[in-house]
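Q: Can someone sanity-check these two? First one:
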Amino acid sequence: MTMHDASRTSYLGLIRLQKLAKARHELELSRLNAKQAAIKEENDALFRMQEDRFVVGATAFVPVPIILKRLETNKSLQAQLSEHMVEAKRNLLKASRTLDTLESRLRDLAKTISRAEVADEADEYMGHLLGRHAI
């Protein structure tokens, strides 16, 4: 195994690992988005419950203090989720940039290997031509 093959294999392994890390960060971000959407949906339902209290003939089955307490709790959860989402986006961006860098280095290595092969072929051809003319 040549040094170029080892480098190529190393880059391919690193790229595979980085793709897994990126997928993990994407999954975490989608989980946080789903959680935030669920909280928003719950808040909408709580606001509807609160508004239903003022509808004529409606019977309010959830006391206002409980609704307000849950809305406050959700507000706190949303703030925490927002912080986690910022961190998750930062991690995803970092993983994406690292993956792009590794793929770029792999392309550069492939170009270097290709140039070296062409140079070797040119040297071999020149040696062949020089050897033929010497006879």
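And here is the second, same format, sequence then tokens:
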Amino acid sequence: MPLIRQPYLKDPLIKNLPGININNSTISSLVRKSVYLQTMSEKPAINFNLKKELLESFLIFLIGIPWGYLMCLTCENKIYSIIISGTFWVTLWKGNQFLSAVLDLKVSWVKTPLLRAFIGIIGHSLITFVLVTVIFEVTALFGITISNYKTTVLIAIGITLVMTLILYARQFLLAWRQAAIDSERMQKEIMTAKFETLKNQVNPHFLFNSLNTLTNLVFENQNTAAKFIKKLSEVYRYVLEVKDKELVKLKEEMNFVRSYVFLQQIRHEDALFINENLLGLEESSNIMIPPLTLQLLTENAIKHNVLSSESPLTIDIYIKDERIIVENNLQIKNTINENNTGVGIENIKSRYKYLSSDAIEITKDQNTFSVSLPLIKK
């Protein structure tokens, strides 16, 4: 089943409509409705395969043969009891199976389990009564007598109970499994939609600032301007390449971060310093990271702190205890709420919650702010 994409979140006509605010709550609501509507349109249908049904009926009939002997141990001609027993097994098994399939289309195990169980018990009891009555009437019509009536009825009830338990267990497990799949798909879609929205929020500001910087460079230093254009193209090429990926190699992410940092250092000059020490882990092909994670943390530090030649911002990216640490010195802007960690970090939290059993760790004191990311190995 393909993932549900969110065209309404990407459509500029919708995003730019006055009065429409695409926030995390709106995204979650839209995604849940989309998943719900698709799930409702994909209700299971009753599939009939004649060859399969005949084979199953034959096997069920064979299972019923031993019960034919128990029904009439003193009978001289046991062929009638065998036929009747096999017919009981096939009709009750297949009849209850069909009833269960019909009920699954009408009543959900996940949404209303008690109602589904109650209706199922009533339905299976009725169909058992009807089928037993019909079989007895047919045998009487052909002059076949059943000497042990009570035993036959008890066997029929036993068959129904066994069949009901098997069907209920199977259907409940299938419904529970589908609910888990739908829930995971919903979480993934929410995460994807948030990621798309985040990129739409960040990219215009970054592009605007970069173009302003480039305008000045073209007149001041054409060689640096050419390199700036190259790095800018690398940044946007990477964003396009990873837009549908959950994970990328650490090396690819670091190359992207270096291009991004180059652009920022041209703009801020000696007010920004980046130190990295990944102990060679970026060369490992099995170390993965959610795309744009390190860039978002770097951008978050630049956005929330004062940058000046007298008090430069220093960002350190290093490995410690099997985790990637992104750390910066704190010099918060006066216009920034100190309790606000940024949209980017919230996005990273939600992605790591989905992709890893280990959560990210955020540490903040008077002098530093750091984010610890668990290593993801594939």
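A (reply): Looked at the second one. The first strand starts at residue 248 and ends at 249. The chain has a mean pLDDT of 75.
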